[in-house]
Amino acid sequence: MYSHDEKRINNVLAGAKAPDDAQLDRILKKAELKKGLDLEESAVLLQVRSMGQLERLFASAGKVKNEIYGNRVVLFAPLYISDYCVNDCEYCGFHCRRGAMGRKRLSAEEIQKQTRAIIAMGHKRILLEAGEHPDTTIDYVCDAIGQIYSTKLGNGEIRRVNVNIAATTKENYVKLKRAGIGTYQLFQETYHRRTYEKLHRGPKADYERQLTAHGRAFEAGIDDYGMGVLFGLYDHRFEVLSLLAHAKYMELRYGVGPHTISMPRFCPAPSVAFSPGFPVSDADFLKLIAVIRLSLPYTGMIISTRETPEIRTQAFRIGISQASAASCTSVGGYGDSGNGILGQFELGDHRNVDSVVRSLMSQGFIPSFCTACYRSRRTGDAFMRLAKSGDIHYLCRPNAIMTFKEFLMDYASAETRKDGERMIVREIEKIENTERKLETKKRLARIERGERDLFF
Length: 456
Ligand code: SAM
Ligand code: SF4
Prior knowledge:
By secondary structure, the protein is an alpha/beta fold. It folds into 2 domains: about 325 residues, Aldolase class I (TIM Barrel); about 60 residues. Strands 1, 2, 5, 6, 7, 8, 9, 10 and 11 form a 9-stranded parallel β-sheet that branches. A two-stranded antiparallel ribbon has the order 3-4. Helix 11 links the parallel strand 7 and strand 8. The longest helix is centred in the N-terminal third of the chain and has 19 residues. It binds S-adenosylmethionine (SAM) and iron/sulfur cluster (SF4). S-adenosylmethionine binds next to loops.
């Protein structure tokens, strides 16, 4: 079982000094081999401060990102199904001190309605979220997942449900796995035990329960798992190194590292007086995205609408591979902005999906709504092996193009569709394998004729 060695992290941090140009070059050259970095090397990169060195760090991270993920950015939307919570996390708008008034747990019909609203925006992936409460049982969560998968609207449906719910038992993870989840995400919030214990009350205050949850999930058969910390709670260098140490432990112990790392930064929230003791500046935030990208090259990285469009755009260049779009963090809030239910926190990006898609295209990124790996059972180790061999490009590029084509046909504005079609022509030319290129063209024609959900 994982136990976090704070002393080791502190020692590595204490030994890490800002690099000179030669040391920086040596570490970046190693990182560009896409085999990851030692904790000591990551710690040195976190000390980089000068503009010139930062630019080199970003250039290396961008190169690695591009070689592994190309110019694709996968989009999704969160769906909050219940904001009842027995915990009192200092930073969260769902904390139990707020009382039960004005809270909501969605019924099956409401889940279908919310899902239809999300499908209508063009999404194919949902991240299901909930507070922790005895009435929000694992069976309720599994039923909710079933409701989401069975909801159809026009040509659309949700094809992958990822889940972010409280740490739980192995038996409950078995049920989640059986319900057909994609990735199970859980954030440690902070790896600094004293800070963790100060900021949490309720069952979540158990540091070990949180720290060992990914292991239980894996042992229950969930081989796609996601990790993260909430930046702002403690020193970000300590958090990044701790996250990397945890990820390395998981890879060694189970043979599969995290599928994703999420990058939430604290945001102000209704009824929350907490102000972060260790706010992370925009410049530091981008630096640590780049360091994680170089340290764990094959792990997907997620940015949410907590961040502004400007920060998101920069983050896509240096490491982020997945992003939420047009999110609502209140329970039942999609398609019904005035329902009076408070959101979990305030957002930095309020654009609709069409605008996010336009902005991505204008920066040279192709928006992807792909869910193929999970449905072709390319999860866990199978996914990682494919990614490391580089063969993933033969699948991901055509799949991104085909799911983007579906978006353009079914959900895009006329202007976005015009630009998108032009982008698709350019993207097809980038498919190196002639047979795959031909087959992709054939499938695009089938999508034009009304077929949907074609993937490699
Ligand atoms: N309740 C579950 C838990 O705490 O693990 C999972 C869902 S919770 C809705 C998802 C995440 O939101 C938390 O893990 C936390 O990192 C993040 N969060 C909470 N309050 C936040 C805030 N004020 N700003 C940014 N992120 C926040
Ligand atoms: Fe509840 Fe999760 Fe918010 Fe904590 S972060 S109050 S556990 S919903």
